[in-house]
């Protein structure tokens, strides 16, 4: 693809999505170096309010040599838009081509419960946030505007990701949804899709981990509505997802089966896919699975 906005120097087309918040940052930096050594091209992390994703990004960028680091996502309720833009510009200036600012509107229960904020119309909130980011003077770290991706599931947010951002960061979607996002955005904007996997152990163990992984999302309207748009129905929206939904969204079986679920998004038009290992607890080590998967992906 040509003429893409921003520059992201992914060393490979497959990266990692990992919730690093529960890990001491020094241990998380060691993990980032291991991920880079395995041949993965990126490390994306969520922001749940426990740690600042921009500070974590700086730590991971400083600990590695080529790894692209992305926020998946930086919560727009967590910081002012001018702070997000200026912080991201500094990271981009320090590590050209290696930082991606993923932005998202989060979820009403999180914003109104944990943050004590107000969750208004997501689309208009995001549009206003991006416009205010654009108000930061160009003289602040000139030439270092960060590459921005939006957590875009619905049609209007996907449209906005091509209008005021540089592309989309789809999460918990089928390859068909990645293909749809590409059709909406056209060739130039970036698409970095997340793909969950659960391999190793018995088939029952894999399914249990996959259900556990989906459980919190199955209670969030954003994801429930996304899954309904992708062809699922109300019977699939049980806690943890139905078996049909779970097997469709989470790569299970052999390492080769899981690898195929990852590359399916590349075939559907993603520029880069980040693999998320479904684990029993947030402090579980994802490296054994990532090593096995790296071999299956021939990284």
Automatic annotation (TrEMBL):
- Tell me the domain of life: Bacteria
One Pfam entry for this protein is Bac_luciferase
Q: Which UniProt keywords apply?
A: Oxidoreductase
Domain named Luciferase-like: residues? 20-233
Q: What SUPFAM superfamilies does the record tag this protein with?
A: Bacterial luciferase-like (SSF51679)
InterPro entries, A to Z? F420-G6PD/mer (IPR050564), Lucif-like_OxRdatse_MSMEG_4141 (IPR019922), Luciferase-like_dom (IPR011251), Luciferase-like_sf (IPR036661)
Q: Which NCBIfam families match?
A: F420_MSMEG_4141
- PANTHER family, alphabetically? 5,10-METHYLENETETRAHYDROMETHANOPTERIN REDUCTASE, PTHR43244
Protein name per Swiss-Prot or TrEMBL? TIGR03620 family F420-dependent LLM class oxidoreductase
